[in-house]
């Protein structure tokens, strides 16, 4: 099954549900960052949560989810947009802890205590920022707490990543159910009951369940309709050209210092682990481009910066 998300609403509009299968996306993240199993689970759950919330965005809007705990992982970050493009990283990808007493990857201990931050860039002048203290560091509970506290919407969040002994991602995905404002108490308590009986996300996905079936399992007898569906994929927005622009902003002196120390300039993208190498000749080209750019700026005499390419 290809990775994809859906967004559904119940007939009366009282409940909204998002579900996604993200197995290939999380496996892609694992390969790029070389994460060990506990780190894979933490990153995968965070990427999935960002992807699910991304399903509520419009084109041009983005969401950033940051899990900043005092555990060995040292922070997990994921970002997503309306197109289902997700990317993210964990500060310490090598982290793997002993399994919990119930045989699960110990994401809570790897994350530790701290704060969950969500930044919504809706394309307005300033982005919306919300944060809540971490409940357990298991990420799903923390996201649910964020949705209740920041959005006043009682929410069920289930996230799961199943990692094989070979460290490969076997199943990943999640479900978010949100009770919209104005819904009655019975709806809330019915969904709470359903949530308790909901099978683990990883067993649903391993069993071949689709996002549609996951939403059905979460909503039970409440009829719902899929209002939107889209692909999920791990993709970064970095490019050699963007990295060049960053290097130019360093200025000639700093570039020459790096060159003198290391013989080349190497830039690694945090989000996708791509490496960009600039040998001596490439750096010299950048510098001469900067000089030409400066000269053009002076000739124009208008103080505008010209970006060199
Ligand atoms: Zn990148």
Describe the structure in your own words:
InterPro entries: Heat_shock_Hsp33 (IPR000397), Heat_shock_Hsp33_C (IPR016154), Heat_shock_Hsp33_N (IPR016153). Disulfide bonds join 236-238, 269-272. The protein is α+β, with helices and mostly antiparallel strands and 309 residues long. The chain folds into 2 domains: 4-234, 3-Layer(bab) Sandwich (Hsp33 domain); 240-300, CBS domain Like. Helix content is 38%, strand content 28%. It is built from 10 helices and 13 strands. It has helices at residues 23-33, 37-54, 107-111, 140-151, 185-197, 201-206, 211-219, 240-250, 252-262, 280-300, and strands at residues 4-10, 15-21, 62-69, 76-81, 85-90, 114-121, 128-133, 155-163, 169-179, 224-231, 233-234, 265-268, 275-278. The strands form 3 sheets. It has a 6-stranded mixed sheet with strand order 7-6-3-4-5-11, with helices on one face. The chain has a 5-stranded antiparallel sheet with strand order 8-9-2-1-10, with helices on both faces. The chain has a two-stranded antiparallel ribbon with strand order 12-13. The two termini are 42 Å apart. The relative contact order is 0.16. The structure holds zinc ion (ZN). Residues 236, 238, 269, 271-272, 274 line the site of zinc ion (ZN).
């Amino acid at each position: 099954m290809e990775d994809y998300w859906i967004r559904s609403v119940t007939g009366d509009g009282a409940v909204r549900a998002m579900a996604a299968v993200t197995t290939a996306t999380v496996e892609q993240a694992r390969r790029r960052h070389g994460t060990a199993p506990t780190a894979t689970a933490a990153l995968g759950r965070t990427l999935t949560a960002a992807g699910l919330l991304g399903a509520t965005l419009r084109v041009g809007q983005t969401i950033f989810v940051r899990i900043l705990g005092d555990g060995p992982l040292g922070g997990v970050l994921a970002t997503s947009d309306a197109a289902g493009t997700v990317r993210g990283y964990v500060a310490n990808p090598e982290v793997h802890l002993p399994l919990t007493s119930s045989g699960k990857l110990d994401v809570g201990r790897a994350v530790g205590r701290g704060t969950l931050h969500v930044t919504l860039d809706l394309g307005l002048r300033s982005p919306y920022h919300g944060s809540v203290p971490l409940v357990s560091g298991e990420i799903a509970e923390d996201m649910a707490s964020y949705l209740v506290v920041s959005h006043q919407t009682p929410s069920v969040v289930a996230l799961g990543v199943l990692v094989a002994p070979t460290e490969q991602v076997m199943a990943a995905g999640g479900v978010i159910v949100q009770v919209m404002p104005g819904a009655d108490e019975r709806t809330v308590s019915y969904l709470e009951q359903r949530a308790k009986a909901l099978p683990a996300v990883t067993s649903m996905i391993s069993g071949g369940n689709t996002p549609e079936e996951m939403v059905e399992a979460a909503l039970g007898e409440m009829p719902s309709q899929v209002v939107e569906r889209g692909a999920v994929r791990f993709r970064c927005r970095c490019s050699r050209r963007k990295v060049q622009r960053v290097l130019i902003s360093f200025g000639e002196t700093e570039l020459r210092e790096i060159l003198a120390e290391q013989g080349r300039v190497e830039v690694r993208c945090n989000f996708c682990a791509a490496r960009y190498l600039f040998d001596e000749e490439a750096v010299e080209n950048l510098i001469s481009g900067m000089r030409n750019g400066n000269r053009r700026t002076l000739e124009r005499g208008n103080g505008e910066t010209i970006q060199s390419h």
